[in-house]
Amino acid sequence: MDTITWNLIDEGVSKRMINLDENCENRLVRVECYPKDEKREGISVETVAVSPVLKRIDKEKLPMTQRHKLTKCLLDKNSIRVVTYNVLANCYSDTSLAKTDLYPYCPLEYLDFKYRKILLINEIKNYNADIIFLQECETEFLDGDLRLAMSDYTAKFKGKGERTKEGEAILFRSDRFKFVKSFDISISQELQTNPIFSRLWANISKDSERKEFIAGRGTILQVAQIESTEYPDHHFLLANTHLFFHPEADFIRLLQSIVSIKFIEKLKLDLLEKNPVIKKLGILFAGDFNSDPPSQAFQYILKKKIPIDLMKKNDKDFIYECDGDLAHSLNLEAYADFPFTNCIGTFEGILDYVFYDSDSFELTKVVPLPSVEKVKENTALPSVFIPSDHLALVFEFSIK
């Protein structure tokens, strides 16, 4: 093996970033650490990158750079900026299915999470959001990267259980909000045990195959109650989810939406009743709903009742004599005027939303998505410039 010649490119104390004064493209990087203080000196350790440095990317070519120009400043106390983003978990992208079937157009070096996470951190951080909802977020990414890069945020995580490494994460600015309590649930468990859904679950249980399938879904609803530091009597319920993905499972997603909305509705009523100090309780319900605007789930959330006219005949039997009880009273709206929020080689569509309580918020700004031409410049997502198969949605709201 040829001897490697190493050149010193940077040094310092407790460094997190390396300043590259020379081109390191296609070269290996070695990091040496010498632990010491005024009196002691420890044993040095070193590590060498397993692959060469990739070609440096011109930041101006990144679509998020143009979006960041619209989010340079933090908002004042009467407004909030909200982001929702499915970041494409490493446990899914680092599979043979992803590499050969789902994203065959994406070079492996750009599908590698070690590359994608650098773009993700840069993108998420520079939206300067007040509240961030992440889906397909792994604890390793949240704890090992995001918390370090965004130490001025409080982060809460809810995993989907033992079958997968990923889950949902909610981050919010620590100077503007104080965490109060989490109310996370397994949607399938809530459906089976909450008396609100007893008639619905009894109907479903008549079909043993459907019952078993629904009970086996690991979908969760992450809910965090936070308090404004500027207006202590003003609280928020932040709800985050990632509904079941199968394209033929519109009814399953309707069920998951019903359980989520009814849980949030009851929680809001209980908190207001038991906590007279709370004068306002705004709701933001965000995530990857795997549902387009005409879908049953989307229509239920906005129109407050089960869209029976959209349902298949067999599915209607499951809501027999309980559809009235499953209507809700939340005044939720969502902006969905996008060409798509998810774009892969075989599919593109609007799947991601921030549903906001119109009694508490007014939508004042939508940060534009990258152009269709830019997104498809490298066939589809993810790509060298965009680190997920979803696009981040960024909205600004005034607080009523």
From TrEMBL:
Domain Endonuclease/exonuclease/phosphatase: 84-390
Residues that span the membrane, as ranges: none
Cellular component terms per the entry's GO annotation: mitochondrion
GO molecular function annotation: 3'-5'-RNA exonuclease activity
Top-level lineage group: Eukaryota
Entry-linked Pfam families: Exo_endo_phos (PF03372)
GO-annotated biological processes: nuclear-transcribed mRNA catabolic process, deadenylation-dependent decay
PANTHER family on file: 2',5'-PHOSPHODIESTERASE 12 (PTHR12121:SF37), CARBON CATABOLITE REPRESSOR PROTEIN 4 (PTHR12121)
Name of protein: 2-5-phosphodiesterase 12
Organism this protein belongs to: Brachionus plicatilis
